[in-house]
Write a structure and sequence with these properties.
Elements: H1 12-32, H2 41-47, H3 52-60, H4 63-76, H5 88-98, H6 101-120, H7 132-140, H8 147-163, H9 172-177, H10 183-189, H11 197-210
Length: 213
Amino acid sequence: MHNNMVTVRMTKQELTKAKYILAQRNEKTRLNGFEAGWCDPAFRDYYHPGSPTGRQIYASYSGDELLDFLITYMEHHGHSPDWEKIHHVYKLYLSWRFGDLAKAKAKARSRQKAMTQQAKWPPDWPERVSSEPYYRWLEERGRAYTEEDKAVIEGICTQARESGMPPELSSEPCVYLGKFGDIKKGLALMNIPPLNKAELRFMARYWKENRTK
């Protein structure tokens, strides 16, 4: 049974200390492979999200904070977390927040991919859009292009520079670009993000929030 005696709101300092202690216990778990402190009923009760204190500690972690924690294990273990090296409290918090560990892992992978896209395509990418690398690539491969082709290519670049958004891969200009080969590679050569619809929605929000008004 969870401790019902502690009902007062925890202070910021208490929450910070509780999270620090948990991080220390997790480090021992990572190094030694055992659940440091989980066998202690008082520790388990204090951190369990069903208890008054545990509920507050659990709530103090944002979803992104928990995912970023999990990503550090995915980076060091071939994108597949070694769950035995993660303290049970964190696994419990991940399960409560995202449904189960498999869903948490999927969310972390999506966030990891999004963070990679953010690093690759910062908000000022439109300033570097250029058709010249694409023309060179075509010429190096002996691919002839007409004035009509150039008009489509230049139109794609102009639209991207002026709108600050890449075209959808299924748009007519991109489909037209497919006559020369891989559409994504073509856009990347022009320094235009080759994103699918889900990635585009996420990155659009990121660019909007981080571009100087």
